[in-house]
Every structure is written in C-alpha cells, then in structure tokens.
Amino acid sequence: MAGKFKDKLKDKFKDNAAGKAADSSVKNAPGAAPGRNAPDGKPRKGVKNLVSGRRFAKNTNLIVLVVVFVAVFVLLNLLAELIPGIDNTTGKLFTLTDISREVLGNLKEDVTIYALYDRVEGEAETGPGKRAEQVKILDLYDAYPRVTVRYVDLDRNPSFLASTVGETAQSGYSKGDFIVKCGSRIRHVTSKDIYATTTQTYSYFYQYEVTTGIQAETKFTSAILKVLGDTPVMCYSVGFGESSQANYSAILDYVSDSGYDVVSVDLRTDDIPENAAGMMFFGPTEDLTVAAMDTLKRWLGKGHSAYFFMDVKKVSDDGVIYERFDRFNEVFKDYGIALERNIVEETGENAMQSTGSDRIFKARTSMAGALENLPRTEIHIANTRGLEIENTGSTYEAEAFVSTSSDAKSISIDNETVRTGVSVVAASGKSYVGTAVSKICVFGSSQTFTDMILQFYGSASKQQMISASMKWMDLESQSNVADSIEAKEYNNGVKSAVIVTETQMRAIVIVTMIVVPALILVAGFIVWIRRRHL
C-alpha cells in the first residue's frame, strides 16, 4: 500500500516539474515579455513593455546626455553675453579704472567720441600698438549711456572734418586721430597720444621712439572731463602764413596735456576768446595787419601772455623773400625785444658737423627771464635769426635766455655783412603797458620746435623749457582727476593679448549658442538612428 502511494507522489512531482519547464521555455522565448503571455502564446505588447526594455534605457541615457550638453552650452553663452570682452593681460590693458568708471557713470551731458578710421579696418589691425586695441577700449566707453562712439572714414566722408572742427583747424587732424565732442566743445586726441613711448638712441646719434604701453584711457577720460568743464584756452594763430600746427604736435600736445584747450584763431577776422590764457605763433611768413596788431596789443595789455616762434624767411614763386615783420616788431617793442634781419651760424665744436650745415648747432640756456628757475642746459637750434635786447626801458624788462657761443657768426640779410660774437636766439620780456603786466617769449626759429627736430635731437630739454616758461607766464598746469590714471605698460615687453571686440564677441556667441549645440543635436540624432535597432 505504502509503495503505491510513493509511486503516485513521484509521478505528481514529475508533472509539476514538466509544467514549470514548459512555462519557463515560453517566458524565455525570443521577444517574450516578462509578464503574462497572450492566449496564442506570444508575448503581450504595451507601455509597460516599452519603458522597461534594455534598448529604451540606452536611448534614454543618450537623450539625457545631449540635453545636458545643450544646457551647459546655453548657460555658458548666456554668461558670455554679460561679459563685454576678454582681458587676460597682466596689466589689465582693456579694463577701465575706478576713476573712469566713476566719471562715465556720473555724466550729465552727452559726449561723442569720433574715431577717424573705419571700424572694420581697425578691428583687422591686430597686435600691439594696433587699432584693434583702440576699438576694444572704445567699446568700454560706448557701453555707458551718455557716451557714443562713432567711426568716420575720412576717405569716404572727406567733408566731415570741415563740418565738425572748421575749415581752418581741419589741417591739424589726420586719419587715426580722435575727436571728443560735447555740444560745441571739442578736444583733439592724436593717434600718438594713445600710446606711451620712450626715446632710445641708435649709433650715438639717431633717436627713435619705442612703444612701451597704452594710455588711451588717460587721454579719453581727460578729454571728456575737459569738454565738460570750463577749460582755459591756448590759441594758436592762423592767417599769416604760419606753418601747419601738425608740424608742432609735440609742443601742442604738451600744452594740451597741461590742461588747455588748443584752438585756432585768425586775428584778421576773429576776436581772441575771452577764456584764452595765451597765444602761440608758429613760423608766420606774413606780417600782422594793422587791425590784427591792435587786437593783439589790446589783448596782451590786459595781462595775457604769448609765444612767438619766428623764422628767417619764406619762399614764394619769385624766390626767397625776407619778411621784415615791422608790425610784429611793433608788438615786441613794448617788451624790449626786436627781430634782427640776419641768420645765425655756429662754428667749431658747437656746430653739428654731421648735418653738413652750420645753421644747426648747440646753444646754451641761461637762468634768466622765463627760465630763471631752470638750470642751464644745452639745446639744439635750427635755422634761427638773432634777437636784439633792450633791457633798460622803464615800461618793460627784457632778458635773453638762449644764446650762442662767442664764435658764432651773424650774417646780415640786407648787406651780407658778417659779425662774429654772441647772438641771442631766444628772449622773454615783461611789459607794464596796459592795465596789467603781460609777458611774452620770442624765439628766432620755429623750426627748432618742429617734430622732426625734436625727434632727431631729443625733446626733453625743450619740453622743460616750455614748462618753465609757462610757469613764468603764470600758465600753471590745469590738472584734472584723469591725470592720475597711469599708462598701462606692456608686461616685460610681452605685448600679446586676447583682444575680442564687440563684433567678434557676437560671432563667438552665435557659434557657441547655435552652431555648436546644433552639431551636438545632429550627432546625437545620428547615434540614435544607428542604435535604435539594437
């Protein structure tokens, strides 16, 4: 009996095992779903089956990866739009100082900065000392609501200068310069002003300038302050055949840097501005008119000051004409000074033998008159006439402050007679004629102060001379807060920097926000297509 029961129990276990094996074979068949099968034995299809497959897990990971990449790129690009530029230079060449930010943030009037060149061409000029640097800095100013930066190509718009600064003054501007304008007030920033330089000497004779840094911020912020404020004026004369002021940019820039608006005045037709502190005459070749002489004498008699950089001769179609300058001498007479009708030459060690001309020579200054507080120094003189000094008058005081050696020769223009001895080539005078004491400085040569002569023979001593004479004339430097902004030096001679202008930044944003994410999406789609049948 017991044996039959055991045999039946074994048969039951075998049936159950066979059923489980059949079920397992169906569940593990290819394509079988983990859930219950359909009545025909095939795996059931549904949402639960789709979201629980291995293939879906792989596709989901790929989609999440693409979304994360796109999100990161969008975030980075949004942040890039908030950054006006990239400045990775050690000295922060393209970052405004706190002084400029405060000035620009508190402007009460609109200011326009005109760059006299095409912006696109400027952006293409990359590298140290090139215009791409200037564009980068101007973009920083243009970001302020009260400042507008405009680029003017003078080749395409030749009438711009005449309509903006006037026909007379336009000759002093060149392509690459800048105009800072507020209403009718204008400041001129030259292309040379933008960079800090130092003078080096080659072969013991030739001097040349080396760019050491950038000072665009100092010049632009200072010019903005000056067009907004009541800035004193230094006038330079036009209308009497004067040499172009462009030949004297170094001297005029120094005067401008001292805080003065430098403007032109034609005494034949214009009055001297009320806020004019001084006047300058650079190489006139024609004498004053009677009306201009009277205007100048009245203005000087009110206690004003003037510089006269005279020359020996002018050249006309008929040949050389020696101007007498009788009316100029009438003005100088009130100060005990007169122009001689001669030309001065040096001999011996004072003559610059390397030039092949005895009319370019070394002279010495004196601690007298306008240079009474300046130690004696040596300067180079070019093509000068002599001056006659009369210092015994009761209404004036005249003193020579630059003279030749005793070996110099004075050659008369009228009869070509030669006199050997000391010649005065620069003098200053005080006049007590009028309502106040007035002062003038007269030089027998304007060529001595041209940019070319200063470049060859150095400008330091002559700049000191102008500085000392301005103090003597009570034309002290008019400083402003921008003067404390120092030039940003190139780091140890390494001038390379990442310069990204506004236009270039927009291109970077387009590439990184649109092009790169699109490429990622395309790549992801291609991968998905290839993997969808796995």
Strand order of the largest sheet: 8-7-9-10-22-21-18-15-16
Helix content percent band? 25-40%
Helix segment tally: 14
| Head-to-tail CA distance between termini | 60 Å
Low-confidence regions? 492-499
Radius of gyration: 41 Å
Structural category is alpha+beta
- Strand segment tally: 23
Percentage of β-strand residues: 15-25%
Major sheet, described briefly? 9 strands, mixed
Morphology: elongated
Question: Averaging pLDDT over every residue, what do you get?
Answer: 79
Can you give a write-up of this model?
It is a single chain. This protein is an alpha+beta fold. Helices cover 34% and strands 22% of the residues. It has 14 helices and 23 strands. The protein has helices at 2-27, 47-51, 54-81, 98-105, 119-124, 131-142, 160-165, 216-228, 249-257, 290-300, 326-332, 451-457, 460-472, 502-531, and strands spanning 111-115, 147-151, 178-182, 185-189, 195-202, 206-214, 233-237, 261-265, 276-282, 305-309, 314-316, 319-321, 337-339, 342-345, 360-365, 378-382, 387-389, 396-403, 409-412, 418-420, 424-431, 438-443, 488-489. The strands form 6 sheets. A 9-stranded mixed beta sheet has the order 8-7-9-10-22-21-18-15-16. A hairpin with a 2-residue loop joins strand 3 and strand 4 (185-189). The radius of gyration is 41 Å and the shape is elongated. The relative contact order is 0.12. The model is unreliable at 492-499 (pLDDT under 50).
